[in-house]
Amino acid sequence: MPVTDVQHDLDARTLTITADFAAPVERVWDVYADARQLERVWGPPGYPATFVDHELAPGSRTTYYMTSPEGEKYYAYWNVESVSAPTGFTFTDGFALDESFTPNEEMPESSQVFRFTGTDAGTRATFVATYADAESLQKVLDMGAVEGSTLAINQIDDLLAS
């Protein structure tokens, strides 16, 4: 399993997930840069993602939705802030109301930092989400963010092996 550590800190308002992959940094980067590959691993099993718009470029907006086993769609977006291919990118991550991808003001938004570092065994990925306040972090924790993210990230090994 790629996920090796999960930490949340309500005082710092952060959720940090660390994963190790037996693949070079450039290959792990490709998973996040290519919408079709990302669709295969972004949602947890049973909740596939469909990326409508996706470009890892500063100032771009990625839009996507995940579909539940019952067919319900959950919409979200990224506002990409910085990109340092192939070692990482930063973005604001938010929930959207519907297919218009209008931000859902009732749901937490987070600042995300994704970093990919070469190791002797391949790549260490560090995913850090920072929320505006402890209540927002607690809300996504209560929604199952740790479990869902871990299940999603753990799918990447199969994609890298294919």
Keywords, please?
Alpha-D-Glucose-1,6-Bisphosphate, Chain A, domain 4, 41% strand, 5 helices, 162 residues, globular, alpha+beta, eight-stranded antiparallel sheet, START-like_dom_sf
Number of domains: 1
Structural class per helix/strand content?
A: alpha+beta
Architecture in CATH?
2-Layer Sandwich
CATH topology: Alpha-D-Glucose-1,6-Bisphosphate, Chain A, domain 4
As laid out across the biggest beta sheet, the strand order is 1-2-8-7-6-5-4-3
The biggest beta sheet, please? 8 strands, antiparallel
The percentage of residues in β strands lies in 35-45%
The CATH H-level homologous superfamily: START domain
Q: Total number of β-strand segments? A: 8
- Terminal CA distance: 16 Å
Helix content: 10-25%
Please tell me how large the radius of gyration is.
15 Å
**H/E topology pattern:** EEHHEEEEEEHHH
Number of helices: 5
Q: Looking at the chains present, what oligomeric state does this protein adopt?
A: single chain
Unreliable residue runs:
none
Account of the 3D structure:
Residues 22-160 form the Activator of Hsp90 ATPase homologue 1/2-like C-terminal domain. Belongs to the AHA1 family. The structure is a single chain. The protein has helices at residues 25-33, 35-39, 134-142, 145-153, 156-161, and strands spanning 3-9, 14-21, 49-53, 61-67, 73-84, 88-95, 110-119, 122-131. The chain is built from five helices and eight strands; from the N terminus they run ββααββββββααα. Helix content is 23%, strand content 41%. The model has no long low-confidence stretch (mean pLDDT 97). The chain starts with a strand and ends with a helix. It has an eight-stranded antiparallel beta sheet with strand order 1-2-8-7-6-5-4-3. By secondary structure, it is of the alpha+beta class. The protein is globular and about 45 Å long. The protein has a single domain (3-161), classed as Alpha-D-Glucose-1,6-Bisphosphate, Chain A, domain 4 (2-Layer Sandwich).
